[in-house]
Amino acid sequence: MFENIIGQTGTVEALTRQLREKTVPNTILLHGPEYSGKLTIALELARALTCRDDARWNCQCRSCRLHRELLHPSVQLVGSRYFAQEIVTTADTVKRSDSIASAYLFVRAVRKLLRRIDTIQWDDEEKKIQKALENLSETEDALEPFTGLLRNGATVLDDDARATATDRAVKSALKTISALPGELVPVAVVRNLQNWVHSTTEEARVIIIENVDRLGDAARNALLKVLEEPPSDAYFILTTARRGAVIPTIRSRARAYELQERKQSDADAVIHRIFKGPEHSSGGIREWFLEHEYPGTGSLRAHAEYFITHVLDPDAHRSEELAHERVRTALDGVPEREGYRHFLQELLGLCSVILREEERRHRFSISLEHLQRWRDTIHTHYVRADALNISTSLLLESLYIDMRDAGHAYSQRAGSGA
């Protein structure tokens, strides 16, 4: 069990022991930084909980075979995720590697998306996901060359055919993401899952809710009712990168397991062994993901540099194209919220780089306090992107104005000697 987890030894050992002792709690909260492996651990735990044998890594029971392709009917995946970035990154992996492991990686990345529009979750709410459902069968068809490879257990695609099949699957998956409803976990989804976990079955059922801190008030309240007295054979695995943002009443009903930021050696191992990247990288897994550009967007880091330069330029408003308009144009082909979140991550990453490099701070003529104000502003907008149904265009314009105002407020304080 958990042989696919690199690092996170403490959490893995605790869960392995509880599985063997049959003391796994019904509600678990996995909390830690983004890209720390929360969903990977959740999925492996779900496999072990529903395995019909001893849950060993290479178990060939029907349940485990379904799990490997993320098709198990007793597991539900709920919540938001960086779908497009993961699909684009794993697509690059499968283009460079014809291994079975790479095919699994890509298929699972796409199905992490497709499982969010399971009709069990959206019963009587199909109108909200109609467009996404129309794309679902097309996306599954596009995956057929890879799922066929998994069934045959041998390489059946040459490099050109594999690249063509990958591009087709990515294009279809991105269309599906763009068709998702603005709110992925409305209260109706939680209530449908409540009915599902209380239905009669001989198997354990597992509900994985990613980024539980992003649920709306109605969905949170409905989830609380389910967590108060869950069936003994039902397991809720919640994840978050912001434990403090999870309401206390949900935290009190879950046993928390903390995941750490991966050490550089562990991050290198993930990038090399899982994503077939170099043995040593200059950054972590987050940086590796963000290096993979969305089709047609160009470098998000370059857009972040341009954005900050214009925020600092007092004459930027005279430009023919404002910075937020340029970024909006670049993100036109990307699923709205996900592209915007990753742009914010690039801004935060650039702020961290500037914070560490004094030479770059001088080039941008920016102080440490100024940077901190920006980081706070960007974090606020990250939360706002999840909470409000606002277009990316308006979000970018608001961010641009708020960052300029934050810098202006600091300049006024500095000028007054405060």
Structural class determined from secondary elements: alpha/beta
Pattern of helices and strands: HEHHEHHHHHEHEHEHHHHHHHH
Mean pLDDT: 86
The number of strands is: 5
Q: What is the radius of gyration computed over CA atoms, rounded to a whole number of angstroms?
A: 22 Å
- List segments where confidence is low: pLDDT < 50 over at least 5 consecutive residues: 409-418
Return the CATH topology of the largest domain: Rossmann fold
Strand content: 5-15%
The CATH class label of the largest domain is: Alpha Beta
Fraction of helical residues: 55-70%
What is the architecture of the largest domain at the second tier of CATH?
3-Layer(aba) Sandwich
**C-alpha end-to-end distance:** 58 Å
Number of helices, where a helix is a run of at least 4 consecutive DSSP H or I residues = 18
Tell me the name of the CATH homologous superfamily of the largest domain.
Answer: P-loop containing nucleotide triphosphate hydrolases
How would you sum up the global shape? globular
Taken together, the total number of domains comes to 2
Spatial strand order of the main sheet: 2-3-4-1-5
Largest sheet: 5 strands, parallel
Description of the structure:
- This protein is α/β, with parallel strands linked by helices and 418 residues long.
- The chain has two domains: 9-274, P-loop containing nucleotide triphosphate hydrolases (Rossmann fold), CATH 3.40.50.300; 293-416, Zinc Finger, Delta Prime, domain 3.
- Helix content is 58%, strand content 6%.
- A five-stranded parallel β-sheet has the order 2-3-4-1-5, with helices on one face.
- Helix 13 crosses helix 15 (336-356).
- The radius of gyration is 22 Å and the shape is globular.
- Residues 409-418 have low confidence and may be disordered.
